[in-house]
Amino acid sequence: MRTRIGSFQFALLACACATFGGCMIQPSQDQMSLAKAMSTRVDTRPVYADSARFLQRKYLNAQSRDYVMWSMDYSSICLMGGHFDAAKKEMLNCYHHIETRQDTDSEKAAAVSNEALKVFKGEPFERAMLCTYLGMLHYMEGDYNNARIFCARADMSDATTEENCVQFRHDFRLAHYWLGRSYLKQGDEGNARVAFQKASQKLVRDGQAREEQQISRAHTTGREKRIELEKKSYQIATTGETPVFGAVDMSASPHQMGMPECIAAYPQAASLANPVLHCATSPSEFFSPDYQKKVNLIVVVEMGTAPVKYLAGENGCVDNIIRSHGPERSAMVYLNGHKAGAAFNMLDMFHQADTRGRSEKDDVQLAKGVTQSILRRLPYVGMVAAYWDVRADGRYWRLLPGEVCIFAACVAPGNYTLCVKTFDANGNLLPRYRLTRYSVPVQANKENIIMLHTKYGADNTYVPPVKN
Fold first, then answer.
1. Fewer CB near the terminus (10 Å): N or C of the chain?
2. Cα(4)–Cα(327) distance, integer angstroms
3. Which of 64-68, 156-160, 179-183, 293-297 is least confident?
């Protein structure tokens, strides 16, 4: 199995190698700021405003051929920090840039040399996610017509024309979900029903069953190690000379099916009635227009990190994509400690990346790599051919989530403690990936949308003392 590390850990490792490898080279402030920004999705103490300002000052204002890549990462930081207006503004700029910017000279240069010389416009699934975000942001503002337009564009952006992936042309399920809700708001229940039907369809790709078995085995091994370490940590915390007050044994990892109906940290909250009035118990109910009409609370849960693009083949002539590391595969929502219900998985970003199909560009890149490899073995021209840069384009949207789940239910108005609990591929609880938000408002006669992203160690792992 391939060992994978996060972007922030990789940056720190590179800095350490440079420092202790005899060079004593210290990373610059810009290098550290970039590493910090690119670790936003996994950093437990991110400073969203600082990272966003750095990317804007250093990269967005340059308007280089990499503008779209930096714009996408900047927008992700704004979304995670709750700066939706800034995210929407930049995403609209990014979308306009993709649609209008042309550079014939760079396209010609990329055709015979390094593919990254051309203006970056993202992969089809990245452009689809950009449009989906724009659709969701317009929806949150009550602009349902533009929400519908951008969600429809998301579907078309991901609709590959490659015949070897024809069955995956319209499978960007997250866009179909928001498209269905947009149609409902416009009173078009017929098209809403079609959109929800598409959102409910999970298509299986080649090799998926084998991949899921490998992930399941890896998560089983990881859980065994995790439980052992958690037991040792709890023992040290409670039996040392200065025991930690309120320490919790995190080794207990129940299965998703065995989660209790009420696990409130505060006894006062547990004594209150469950605020959920109606929550879907099956996909067929969840994706029905009648149920979606009743929904007044939507929780968008982003889990994991983006698929990683890397160069492979002859002299890096082709680009491949692998699933990034991250154990979260499903989520469950609690309100005031009461089980509200499961969040339905709406998007697997690696699935979207892996079903883009083999394009003419891939064939051209492979031909360039093979040709260079042959020329390097010929007399006289071999030395010249060695300098021919035939690398593929390794740029990608690094701050995308790995998966997206949605919880939607009808909830009584009030302020709630919202807790998201996540589970691995085997359905076992991941206690250190818990995410809690306090005083979350659910207002009467209004649709309430909450956007969250899970990460390791970002929640308080200690239960505070309660005064009687």
1. C
2. 13
3. 156-160
Which residues constitute the domain of residue 236? 213-252
pTM higher than the cut 0.85:
yes
Strands 448-453 and 297-303: parallel
Q: In angstroms, rounded to a whole number, what is the distance separating the alpha carbons of residues 212 and 215? A: 5
Q: Which of 180, 159, 178 is nearest to 168 (CA)?
A: 159
Do the domain assignments include residue 230? yes
Q: Report yes or no: 75 and 90 within 8 Å, Cβ to Cβ.
A: yes
Determine contact, residues 226/404, Cβ cutoff 8 Å. Answer: no
Number of domain units in the chain? 1
What six digits make up the tokens of 395?
Answer: 């740029």
Nearest Cα to 75, choosing from 346, 397, 458?
Answer: 397
Look at residue 265 and tell me if it is in a domain.
no
pLDDT at 372 over 80: no
**Burial letters 429-451, b for 16+ CB under 10 A, else e:** bbbbbbbbeeebebeeeebbebb
**pLDDT, tens digit, 9 for 90 and up, residues 133-166:** 999 999 999 999 999 999 999 998 877 666 667 7
Give the span between the Cα atoms of 126 and 352, in whole angstroms. 9
Burial label, 193 (beta-carbon count in 10 A; 0-12, 13-18, 19+): middle
Write out the DSSP string of 154-182. Answer: HHHHT----GGGGGGTT--HHHHHHHHHH
Residue 221 falls inside a structural domain: yes
